[in-house]
């Protein structure tokens, strides 16, 4: 960090916090903050501990989207997502099967939990509930503020885990074209944004694996901000894409950065966090060629030998083919195949050849892809 940046950055961040504090104080006094909410972000864990994050903010009252929502209505909802009133210094209690932990929100309203699990707890199924409650009185006539979070705990009959990017991997976003990405984000909704043809059926097949039991866990990583969390989770639900924890990032001014850390740094950190916590699993890695996913996954394979079964990269940037061939060769030398695919069925056929999914799923994927393509027309 340069001397100028070291001098300016902490002062700008202090000013940002002071303005946010003043805004919240005035908002409460004027009655602009009438109700609060705990925003839970799905977590994950192992037999020893669970990890998750929550955020305490003003209740935005966004609700779910509808297919017929206008561009203006979509824009208003997106505006609410970004114009947040975060609540710093608030204590949140998490309760999980008799265990409790209290964590205090930071300057941006986030609270992180690392909750140990007692030896008597035996996981039953993939998903488990954590009860959340706000302990502090922040606004007049607040009442109880509660929420429930869902925690993914892979156990039992699991063949492998899947880590997938979202932007230009699951759904076309134009992540490499800023204006197109902004237009898609702010004026669309979970219904109007459509996945690449066949993605839903392919991911459902991976969730079932080769034994037909839907027990293989999904983890999603995106460089989008946490403000879009509910939007992206609704998108996955609307399009029948297997649910899983979604790791996003906090954009904007912080103690260490003016805007945000790089896509590569964020994604590598989150993938390696998953590998560290779910250390009993091997993984399939899925990404695209537009935002350095191949380079990130190469680093993961180097750092965690024997943990990656195969890598699927959606080809969205033909200009990178020469660089990708070099990366593929490096990955192959480490004993892993990186497959550059043009569509979902190509990845599905390769997955069948590796006994990752069953033959009968190919028909479903091809049919789904065909139907999705007709919808686009």
TrEMBL record:
Coiled-coil region(s): none
Record-level Gene Ontology MF annotations: phosphatidate phosphatase activity
InterPro entries, per database record: APP1_cat (IPR019236), Mg2+_PAP (IPR052935)
Superkingdom per UniProt: Bacteria
Domain named Phosphatidate phosphatase APP1 catalytic: residues: 160-315
Protein known as: Phosphatidate phosphatase APP1 catalytic domain-containing protein
Species of origin: Rhodonellum psychrophilum GCM71 = DSM 17998
UniProt lineage: Bacteria, Pseudomonadati, Bacteroidota, Cytophagia, Cytophagales
């Amino acid at each position: 960090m340069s001397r100028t940046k070291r001098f300016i950055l902490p002062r700008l961040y202090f000013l940002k916090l002071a303005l946010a504090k003043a805004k919240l104080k005035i908002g409460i006094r004027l009655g602009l903050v009438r109700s609060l909410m705990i925003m839970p972000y799905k977590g994950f864990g192992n037999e020893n501990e669970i990890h998750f994050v929550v955020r305490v903010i003003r209740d935005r009252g966004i609700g779910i989207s509808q297919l017929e929502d206008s561009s203006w209505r979509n824009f208003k909802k997106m505006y609410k997502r970004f114009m947040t009133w975060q609540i710093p210094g608030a204590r949140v209690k998490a309760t999980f099967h008799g265990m409790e932990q209290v964590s205090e929100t930071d300057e941006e309203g986030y609270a992180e939990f690392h909750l140990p699990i007692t030896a008597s707890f035996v996981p039953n199924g993939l998903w488990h509930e954590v009860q959340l409650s706000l302990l502090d009185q922040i606004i007049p006539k607040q009442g109880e503020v509660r929420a429930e979070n869902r925690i993914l705990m892979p156990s039992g009959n699991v063949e492998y885990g899947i880590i997938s990017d979202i932007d230009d991997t699951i759904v076309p976003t134009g992540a490499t074209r800023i204006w197109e990405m902004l237009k898609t984000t702010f004026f669309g909704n979970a219904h109007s944004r459509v996945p690449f043809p066949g993605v839903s059926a392919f991911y459902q097949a991976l969730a079932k694996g080769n034994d037909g039991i839907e027990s293989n866990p999904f983890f999603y990583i995106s460089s989008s901000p946490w403000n879009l969390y509910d939007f992206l989770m609704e998108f996955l639900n609307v399009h029948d894409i297997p649910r899983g924890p979604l790791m996003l990032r906090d954009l904007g001014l912080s103690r260490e950065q003016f805007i945000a850390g790089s896509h590569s740094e964020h994604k590598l950190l989150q993938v390696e966090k998953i590998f560290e916590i779910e250390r009993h699993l091997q993984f399939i890695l899925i990404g695209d060629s537009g935002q350095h996913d191949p380079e990130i996954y190469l680093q993961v394979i180097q750092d965690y030998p024997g943990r990656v079964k195969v890598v699927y990269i959606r080809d969205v940037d033909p200009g990178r083919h020469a660089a990708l061939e070099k990366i593929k060769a490096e990955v192959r030398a480490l004993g892993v195949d990186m497959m550059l695919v043009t569509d979902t069925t190509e990845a599905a056929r390769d997955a069948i050849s590796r006994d990752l999914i069953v033959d009968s799923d190919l028909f479903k994927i091809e049919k789904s892809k065909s139907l999705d393509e007709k919808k686009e027309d």
